[in-house]
Amino acid sequence: LRASSLPGAMDVTALRRKADQGDAEAQHTLGGCYYRGEHVTQDYAKAADLLRRAADQGHLGAQYNYGICCRDGKGVPQGDREAARLFRRAANKGHADAQCALAQCYDFGRGMPLDHDEAARLYRRAAEQGNPVRQFSLGNCYRHGKDVPQDDREATRLFGLAADQGVPDAMFNLTVHCALGKGVPQDDAKAARPYRLAAEQSHADAQTNLGTHCAMGKGVPQDDAEAARYYRLAAEQGLAKAQYNYGTVCEHGECGLPQDLDEAARYYRLAAEQGLALFQLHLDGLLTEEAAAGRALPAAPGEAARFLAQAVQRTEDEEVRLEALAVLSEYAHDPDVV
Q1: Once rounded to an integer, what is the mean pLDDT over residues 24-32?
Q2: End-to-end CA distance of the chain
């Protein structure tokens, strides 16, 4: 349920009065406030009651939002069939969000029979109304051939429509298609523009990929400082591959930054803690090299061995697993490893 535009408590008082008088729009708006805890104390039961009252009067937004309450069991008993019924009522009157929600019911067999063709039809109806999130969702259907014939050209078109309306994930997918030549001629310069737009909206994958473009001069002027800046922005959002990339920059003193092994180890550790085997192996290598050179980095005893053990357990890459096992075996008789 989206945020309302109420500026203060006085509006809530007036809104409550209108809702009590049976005004469907006021009931819908106030129900949203209670659902989100906006201007009032959050109360799912009050939210559901207000939305139900508005839905019974034929308010399309309330039918959709009360359906959400039923689907998720917020303020009312959870019920997929009731949710689907409400979504259908609003979808039949052209409510785009309800069309998408009903499509998901068909997609996953929740409250409706499993029917991927009907799901795709509903996704398309929602997308045709210009809803950017639905355009992005339908673009992904065409991208992967899910419920519709696989079609890179149509996927790219829909990503472009959604990207033009500011959807960061659509911007990112559009750049990937441009960079790989999927559905459009390959064009690094064209790919860089939506990457930058998505990166400016804090899309971590876009920041990482734009960093790589800056480092390589692909579609943008080569700029080491910008590459490092984008890697760090993405790393600070917790993206493991960006943490690894920024760690590499720090380890080798690249992209105009001074070498900083402590900082490198910190970012490698953050990536390794997400259980990515290759990063765990790289962290072990850095810790081992620095210990051999008498420059031990801050690390608890056995930390490298712990990451390597995780690498062995989690990786699906047999080469990485065998390398991790070989290095791990060297710790077997180390008294500092517990």
Answers
A1: 95
A2: 50
